[in-house]
Amino acid sequence: MTHTPPPTQDDLAAGRELDAEVATKIMRLRAYRRWPDDDYDSWYVVPTTAGTVPSWDEVEMPAYSTDVGAAWQIVEHMDSLGWKVQVRSDSQLESYEVDEPWVCVFAHRDGAPWAAANTAPLAICKAALKAVSAS
């Protein structure tokens, strides 16, 4: 039997599971599937201040890893926490060696976690997860 290491933030693919991780770890929301056994990806979020039972405060979980508008909510949230952000195509960042077209960097007094991805929203999600896990 071979041991497969758990995925890192760099290994994460865009999709609802990553969106749920971002909602929970970055945006401090509680993410859940209303009907876990259905074929429709019916993910919702509620504020962590809400009770344990889904309430009328629930909204459909944003597609953070695939929608640039939803990903920008992450940028604004991280900025409100004191992180400065750069989101650029790799051709604009000479000091980063990457194979992906988009790079996101979150800079803070404790460092500057960064990630690269095929899309800007995915790079934002990966970099934000690195930033919160490093702080």
Give the SSE layout:
Elements: H1 16-25, E1 29-33, E2 43-47, E3 59-60, H2 68-80, E4 84-89, E5 102-107, E6 114-117, H3 120-134
Antiparallel strand pairs: 1-2, 2-3, 4-5, 5-6
Note down, in words, how this protein is organized:
- The longest helix is centred in the C-terminal third of the chain and has 15 residues, at 120-134.
- With 135 residues, the chain is α+β, with helices and mostly antiparallel strands.
- The termini are far apart.
- It is built from 3 helices and 6 strands.
- A hairpin with a 6-residue loop joins β5 and β6.
- The model is unreliable at 1-7 (pLDDT under 50).
- It has a single domain, classed as Bacillus phage protein, CATH 3.30.2120.10.
Summary keywords:
Bacillus phage protein, three-stranded antiparallel β-sheet, disordered N terminus, alpha+beta, 28% helix, globular, 135 residues
Helix % is 25-40%
Q: Main beta sheet, described?
A: 3 strands, antiparallel
Which CATH-level-2 architecture? 2-Layer Sandwich
Cα distance, first to last residue? Answer: 35 Å
CATH uppermost class: Alpha Beta
What's the number of helices?
3
CATH topology title: Bacillus phage protein
Low-confidence stretches: 1-7
What structural category do the secondary elements indicate?
Answer: alpha+beta
